[in-house]
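Example 3.2
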Amino acid sequence: MNTDFSIADMRDFLEREAAMINRPEFIADDPVQFPRRFESLRDIEIVSLLASSIAWGNRKMICRDADRMLALMDHQPYAYMMDRGYEELSPEQNIHRTFFARNLANFLAGLRRIYERYDSLADFACANRVGEDPAPAWKLVELINDQLRAANGGVHDSRCLPGNLDTTALKRVNMALRWLVRDDGIVDLGVWRGVIDPARLYIPLDVHVGNTARSLGLLERKGNDRRAVEQLTEVLRTMRPADPVYYDYALFGIGVTGKQLQ
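Structure, written as tokens:
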């Protein structure tokens, strides 16, 4: 951490900045809006994974393409998945940038295997003790990838979920878990009560969050990999042990405004 400022100074700064972003007004321009459209836990889970999986690049484009993806599923993701509606998609139909209908079909086929056996992804996570793992996002992806491969002829589709779990930052899945787990009644949905303790979540790390964290002296590692996620989250836990990823809002907002701790 930047030694020019005390932990208390940095915490107060991050708290103020996070509070400016963690507001209901944030929802309309963020991919979190998509799982929030649904009431069923299963729909929320499916949309959280799908919307986060295409959450890279321009935010307006992400939201536009997530909207179109939901339209392909008739805005009934669970029913569409269980009815195998994805089998009727044209494989080369573009969903978002390098994510195509064939990737969506692979993702849904793998998730369908889970929902055939469990009432929800939360139940699947609990049955496999994901919440007890020191790195819940990586454990969950390992388990889901097993189902994806089983459903798709043993082939791993990296456009769905990463396979390089020793090194990947897992930004998009960590963001989806923030949506599902955090429960302050503002932006995040908090529907996974008792599945994963918010204290065990990791920061969703992308280029912008990484650069912001380095500019504040919160992160020394240059690469935006798993070790950087672990290092940054460890620092954030010293300031907010029970809910470190709350500061994702601060790092996002600071990245947009360029504000510095004074």
